[in-house]
Fold this protein.
Amino acid sequence: MSIFHPTGNWYRPPTGSERLWVGLALAWCLVMSITMPWWHFQGKQNAPQTTYEVEPAAFIERVNQFVQSNRVGEMNGVPIVEAEPGGDAYLLGQMWQWYPILKLKKDQTYRIHVSSADLNHGLSILPINMNIHVLPGYDYVMEITPTTAGEFTLICNEFCGIGHHRMTGKIIVEE
Ligand code: CUA
C-alpha cells in the first residue's frame, strides 16, 4: 500500500534512447539464448557424455590390469603405459596423483576411462585447458583423438585435501 495512488494511467512506453537500449538488450538476450544450444552441438569443446557406474575397487582392478599388460617404462616411480590405438585406456585419480602416465599416438582415437579411487577430483589437461569432473563410483569415458604431439600436464583443479596442489600427472602424445 502506498501513500499516494499513481495518477491515472502512469505507464509510458519507452521512447528515444530508452527504447534503443531496451531493444539492444533484448536483441542480445536472444542472440545469447540461441548461441548456447547452437554451440553445444556445433562446438568442438564438448566432452562426450558416456558414463558408467563402477565400484572404485573394480575400477582400480581394471587400471592395474591395464598397467600390467601395457607398461612400457617408468618416470619418477610412476609407470608409463602405452594404450592400444583405437582401444581403451585407464586413468585413475587418487589422493594425490593421476595414475598412470599415458602414452598415446597422434591422430589415433582412444577411449580413456577416468574415475576416482577416493573422492572428487578435477582433471585438468594443460595447456589445452580441458576440464573434467572425476567422481568415485563413475567411469567417465573421454573419447579423445590427440591432434598435437607433445607432453600434456595433468593437474587437479578440485580441492581434494592437503596434497591437492601436488596432484599432477602426464599424458605423452607421440608423432
Ligand atoms: Cu585431486 Cu585436488
